[in-house]
Each structure stands twice: as structure tokens, then as C-alpha cells.
Design brief:
Strand order of the largest sheet: 2-10-6-3-5-4
Number of helices: 8
Largest sheet: 6 strands, mixed
Number of strands: 10
Helix content: 25-40%
Structural class: alpha+beta
Order of helices and strands: EHHHEHHEHHHEEEEEEE
């Protein structure tokens, strides 16, 4: 007999250094109703905004569009340019992400990855998520509960699916053809991909620290945050995707 050896590949990350600066005047801290608590409030707001910017860059960065998205290519740009992922030939009219369309994306995935179907997940933008929910009927229990007081009639159900009576909140999930669907608000309109959650690799080279300095000449407090991070796909062959905007 012959033992089968294990072959290991290497995923390389190239990190970028990104900086966020802001300042607050001493008068602003003295005159507001929150007093000194305003400083902590602003730090939380700015760092949350910085985190959102990092996510946006990681998804939509193209390495070319100035000034922000040019910092680095994001996940979508990387796999489209390299050509190792698998595009599904689909036609989507009026945001109709039907079961047949979703099945075409699944079939674009190589069979060896489809065998691990329970670990796959769709990632979709907000508009596509709404189309998936509307055309796949995956939220019937939630709809029935939401319309319980008014009666779960066809008209009321359709009104709910069209947006009436729904509330806005965090990213949502649903399930289509036995595969989880995750809403990603920063995804481009009409773009959907299918892959394994662990296929996206994030790397951070330093802890994120808020640096604070009082500048006497300006009578302001300046804040600076640095981050060094990079992204990469572990296996681009394990990505199937579709873009209705390219129809």
C-alpha cells in the first residue's frame, strides 16, 4: 500500500496601513449638555464608522477609484480579476431571484464543493435579499406572526413582502434550497455569491488603538487611529457568483 501525503498551500496577505483622524475643540466639550461624556460618545461613533469603512473597503475596494476604494482591491474585485471563480449565467428581471435562479448559482459551483452543501452560504446585498424573500416564500412564519392581528390574507401577505409594515434593523438571514442566505448591506446591488464562510481570510497586523493628544496652540483634542489589515481568498475555486446588473 502507499500512504497518501498531505499537500499544503500558502495564503499570503498584503496589509495596508489606514489612518483615521478627527479633532474636537475644547469649547465643544465645555458647552454641550453631555459635558465630558461627549468625548467618549464621539470616540464610539468615529470608531464604529471606521469599522464600517473597513468592511466597505474589504468588499468593494477596486484598487483604482480615488480616493477611498483605491486603497486596495476587495474580495469581489480579487476573484473577478483572477478568473478562478465560477460565474452563473442568469437573467433576473424586476429583482426576481427565483428558486430557479438560485439553483443556477448552486450548479455553477464545482461538484466537489456542492457535496459539502450544509457548509455553503449565499451572501447577498439588501436589494437581492428582498427579492429572494419575495420569490422564495421563506419567511411565511414571520409574515403570519406580523400579520396576525390583521389576518394573513393574500393581499396582506403581498403588502408585507413589498415592504409595508416591515421594520429596519441589522443584517438578516433566510434559507433557500437548503442553504443559508446572509444579507450583507455593503454588497453591490444585484450581486450574489456562494461560498464557505471560512473562505474569506482577514488579517490584522496590529491592535486598533485610539491615540489622543491635546494641542494647546489650537485648543483642540486630536485623535488618530491606525490599522494594518489585509484580505485574501483561501480557495477561489470554491466561489460561485452572479451579477444581475450585468444582464
Amino acid at each position: 500500500y502507499t500512504n497518501t501525503g498531505a499537500t499544503f498551500s500558502k495564503v499570503e496577505l498584503t496589509t495596508k496601513k489606514i489612518r483615521l483622524d478627527w479633532e474636537v475643540s475644547a469649547e465643544a466639550l465645555e458647552d454641550n449638555v453631555e459635558g465630558g461624556a461627549l468625548e467618549d460618545h464621539l470616540v464610539r461613533l468615529m470608531t464604529n464608522a471606521f469599522a464600517n469603512d473597513i468592511e466597505d473597503l474589504a468588499i468593494n475596494g477596486d484598487g483604482a477609484t480615488a480616493p477611498f476604494l483605491s486603497i486596495m482591491p476587495g474580495f469581489i474585485k480579487k476573484h473577478k480579476d483572477n478568473g478562478d471563480s465560477h460565474e452563473a449565467a442568469i437573467t433576473v428581471a424586476d429583482n426576481a431571484w427565483t428558486p430557479a435562479v438560485m439553483q443556477d448559482i448552486i450548479l455553477a459551483m464545482p461538484r466537489k464543493y456542492r457535496a459539502l452543501k450544509n457548509n455553503l452560504k449565499f451572501y447577498v446585498g439588501t436589494d437581492a435579499f428582498a427579492g429572494i424573500v419575495k420569490n422564495n416564500g421563506t419567511l411565511s412564519d414571520a409574515i403570519a406572526e406580523a400579520l396576525g392581528k390583521n389576518g394573513n390574507t393574500y393581499a396582506n401577505t403581498q403588502s408585507y413582502l413589498d415592504g409595508a409594515g416591515q421594520t429596519f434593523g441589522g443584517a438578516r438571514t433566510t434559507r433557500v434550497l437548503g442553504i443559508d442566505v446572509q444579507e450583507v448591506p455593503y454588497y453591490p446591488a444585484g450581486y450574489v455569491d456562494l461560498t464557505f464562510p471560512q473562505n474569506r481570510v482577514w488579517g490584522f497586523q496590529r491592535d486598533i488603538i485610539v491615540n489622543r493628544e491635546y494641542v494647546a496652540k489650537k485648543d483642540t483634542i486630536e485623535y488618530t487611529v491606525f490599522v494594518r489589515f489585509g484580505i485574501q481568498w483561501e480557495e477561489e475555486d470554491a466561489i460561485a457568483w452572479a451579477d444581475s446588473a450585468a444582464d
